[in-house]
Specification:
The complex is a heterodimer of chains A (about 325) and B (about 525). Chain A has 13 helices and two strands; from the N terminus they run H-H-H-H-H-H-H-E-E-H-H-H-H-H-H. Chain A is mainly alpha-helical. Classes of the chains: A mainly alpha (about 325), B alpha+beta (about 525).
Chain lengths: ~325, ~525
Amino acid sequence: MISFIAKRLAQSVLVMAIVSAVSFSLFNFVGDPVNNMVGQDATREQRLEIRDKLGLDDPIITQYSRFVGNILQAEFGLSYRIKRPVDDLIVERLPATLELVFVSAVISLFFGIVLGIYTGIKRNSWISRVILSTSLAGVSLPTFVIGIGLIYLFAVHLRWLPSSGRSGVVELGWWKTSLITLEGWRSIILPAITLSLFQLTLILRLVRAEMMEVMRTDFIKFARARGLTERAINFRHALRNTLVPVITIIGLNIGGLVAFSVVTETVFQWPGTGLMFIQAVNFVDVPIMAAYLVFVALLFVIINLIVDILYFVVDPRIRLGG
Amino acid sequence: MHIKKLLTASIIALIAANPALAENVLRWTSQGDALTLDPHSQNESPTIAMNGQMYESLVTRDADLILHPELAESWEAGPDGWTFKLRKGVKFHNGADFTAEDVIFSFERAMHEASDYKEQIKSITSIEAIDDYTVKMVTNGINPILPNQLTSLYIMDKGWSDANNVSVPMNYAAKEETFAVRNANGTGPFILVSRAPDEMTVLARNADWWGEGMFPGNVDKIEYRPISNAATRVAALLSGEVDFVLDPPLQDLKRIEATEGLSVKTAAQIRSIFFGMDQGSNKLRTSNVDGNPFKDVRVREAMNLAIDRDAIKRVVMEGLAFPTSMITSPGVLGNTPENDPPVKTDPERAKALLAEAGYPDGFTVRLDCPNDRYNNDEKICQAAVSMYARIGVIVNLDAIPKSQHFPKIQNRETDFYMLGWGVPTLDSHYVFSYLLDAEGSWNAAGYDNARVNEITDAIAIETDGDKRTSMINEAWIQVKADMPYVPIHHQVLAWGLASTVDIPIAADDAFRPRFAVMK
């Protein structure tokens, strides 16, 4: 067990190193931050001086090793754009993203499983067909279009919900939450739905497929033969067996939700880490881009590690192989 | 009886304390939030606009861009510089008195190495207080347009800055943010209430402002929230969540106009869009011909005649542009009807000129163009590509983000490029010194005319107004003959407003809340 975890940890460190190296080398193609940092009347000498101060003209290897050295000392530098420490900015923005991800995970789980079961059992009803064809829109329409569509329907046309922003924020220590006020819920609902649609569709289709698969197996036939009620068969026996792969997928998709939140946060001006990342890309704010990519990579690595360890506990075959 | 009295008193107190009653709250949005509240740290429009509501400068401009006294009451030029008489009885938001000491402190702060304004006021060699309300600025030679250069140079309180350890602007070497990044203490009409960058900034009316009652504005509270996505920004206006959008996209203006209770205001902007042709290099980098066709004035004229600016205005800009044959806009000293005559399009003549110059079959060249900087920038370039094809010049378009585009111009790595130029001083010197002087830092066209260089230096120190204007005129006539650039149009700016607010639109795209009237 210990050697298995050690091996996985070593692999994670390698993954982090590769991700940071690849993302760092990409920054050279994003453009020159200096032009965004000074007014148009700055002279060429002043521009060169700033490049020099920031070390932008050093060889890429030097820049990268300086970057890694700083990370190891938990030193992420100062944002070029707003000149504030990057770790402060991420800590400040993280609650907004995590709350958005949490609410959309709940939405996609709840509706995904419920609708999945329904369409799995009542395969031929017209309601199932409507649900399935609507859910196609969830996977095929870009998040951007869904978001703008929801804004125009619920904010501009019906005027039920605010079009953008995060209001009703209450400070609980350093954590700013918008989940304990009505105003906060009104502003989170549209972005959360937008972010959840893709995952919801995925879970719905997965649960449905698993449900149909399990319903064909022998032990369900046995259950029927034993004279159990349909309700007991569906929920106690069939559903339990479908949930194993669903839980695996969900674990991995939490990371996906954080990554997808970039688009949703931009459309809804949701002040989380994703919006910060997009603004950093437009400005070529390298310290923020670097820290954000490392953060997302770390998130994926941790989730993967946990899932691997869970597998190890659950599935004896891995123990034998590893 | 006693209880009744108490009840009445508390109801009165409640009514008095409830700010929602009869309070004019202006809610507005734009794409980009201010980067910092430190007034000398970033010379960037949204930052200047935000800080200009709390801080003030010695001189300011109204919506017609006419210079007015702000913290200075009057100013005059002497043989070696300018003397400013300061306004008396002005207080900072923290209650401190405004005196000459604060002006000297702020200018020295703005001249600091870490300041983004040091270039703008580099003509000032020293600054001294004659008395508490008189300041003398000694300049390196006479600078006839110094007041024009001071309109966004905001004055801070020396005591407050020293106490909060912000006596110099934030610099890149610092590891920690300074107090001035998120706190402000100016003399202006609005006081900072709260600020969450990229979320919401709330300002409240300063009842002790010196200008109280002198301006039409009646706004008590300003709520600003940036919305970076254009469609969402327009949605916030359509849904009534904001009263004012500074930068709605041009394609949504008709929709805003058609909505009841909303209107659109447009104005000619002080920003001209043009192409630059590198006529300084001996060989073009991206062309199939040897040498440099742009060195020949006939080729440059052909490049100008090939562009149908009216078609660009009609098809690409939805009518929102002023076609031009000059690279600076009306409103800038030097733009006259003679220097900015109606545009001409003549592909036949252009072809003939190319043949005369030795390029009967045209040539190829790459056009570098930004795709996220100016109104419809990439589409303008696409239109130009097809117009040049008609005269046999094959243009390969490279449209890229501004962060990659502008370094090409800065580093002189482009043969043919799009650039837009605004003129904050409203004086041609700002155009000549950057775009037309041989040493100009944005002169990637490599234009070098001895007389124009001479005039650029001369108008920096000429105080005789008439003489100066005639020199500016002479230089523009020379530029018109040499055609170093291909001017396209002056941009139009548009604001979206609820009918409950009236804000004067200005060519510099600045929001002036002291003139904002809510009905």
